[in-house]
Design a protein that fits this description.
- With 295 residues, this protein is mainly α.
- Helices cover 69% and strands 0% of the residues.
- Helix 8 crosses helix 9.
- 40% of the residues are buried.
- The N terminus is likely disordered.
Length: 295
């Protein structure tokens, strides 16, 4: 994203009210995530997606929205919500249960990859609005606070994650990794999903929502989708106590840095500790000297 484009997007989002008519269809689409990934009720998720996109089309056609720009150049809520809905539908086509066999990893790659590539391709070559972008470098060199936050993320993850995974027993939602091959597969899988999280939830869902609602509202809405996905992936029990603030912080940090590279780095550092804790929990004695809590 160029500096001009990033500034324009920020200016556009900053004048959006916290509460507006746009929120109703956007909320319906985002509420499909708990139906699809938490309650595991596909028909309810499909109904919510259809209702959200359909409502957006009805109110836009009826001229309900008070656009700040000419209608011809205003972003289409219907199109943007349809992109989010398509991505969610592609993800929901597979079970998100963590498995490390080759077939499961291929299914994950195809589904998660498609959830990013298909909306991007539609935005760029069908809708021709380039609504989805991946600003890798963002604002340039990282500041002192950015480097400090990376250190803080590692420390917080080291303190919190062993207690969460081991005391709640949720580490059992991931397969046993007790051979070098399985450990390597877990490392690749955890890292790949972490990168995908930022490509989809931040650069796709959050970015599309920001075109219509205020930054805070968009961040809260993308968190619904983010946390629901992580729930089915295995972050259950009291996991949302961790994943909700994490999702909100990732959205906030992306707004501040405009850097996909930075939010990906934050996520990968966090996931590096997740990986180590899972290995630790499944192999008592292997990493006891690193963590304060043992299984």
């Amino acid at each position: 994203m160029t500096a001009h484009a990033g500034g324009a997007a920020h200016a556009e989002a900053s004048v959006r009210p916290l509460l507006s008519s746009d929120i109703v269809p956007a909320l319906l689409v985002c509420l499909a995530a708990p139906a699809l990934f938490v309650a595991l009720i596909p028909w309810l998720g499909w109904l919510l997606l259809a209702a959200g996109v359909g409502l957006a089309a009805i109110v836009e056609r009826g001229g309900v929205f008070d656009r700040l720009r000419d209608a011809a150049s205003a972003p289409s809520l219907t199109r943007d919500l349809s992109l989010i809905a398509i991505g969610m539908l592609i993800v929901s086509a597979i079970s998100l249960e963590a498995k490390l066999d080759t077939a499961s990893m291929i299914r994950f790659t195809i589904a998660l990859g498609g959830a990013v590539v298909v909306p991007y391709a539609l935005s760029r070559w069908v809708y021709r609005d380039r609504a989805i972008r991946f600003p890798w470098r963002g604002g340039g060199r990282w500041s002192v606070w950015q480097w400090g936050w990376l250190v803080a993320v590692l420390l917080l993850a080291w303190l919190i994650l062993p207690f969460y995974f081991i005391s709640s027993g949720v580490y059992q939602n991931w397969p046993v990794v007790d051979t070098p091959d399985l450990i390597a597969r877990l490392f690749v899988g955890v890292g790949a999903v972490g990168i995908w999280d930022e490509l989809f939830f931040i650069c796709t869902v959050f970015a599309l929502l920001r075109r219509h609602v205020a930054d805070l509202t968009a961040n809260l809405l993308q968190t619904i989708v983010f946390v629901s996905f992580l729930w089915e992936l295995g972050y259950r029990a009291w996991g949302p106590v961790l994943t909700i603030p994490f999702a909100l912080l990732q959205g906030f940090i992306f707004l501040k840095t405009r850097s996909l590279a930075y939010v990906v780095t934050v996520h990968l550092l966090f996931d590096a500790v997740v990986f180590a804790v899972l290995v630790h929990a499944h192999n008592p004695g292997m990493l006891d000297g690193i963590f304060l809590l043992t299984p």
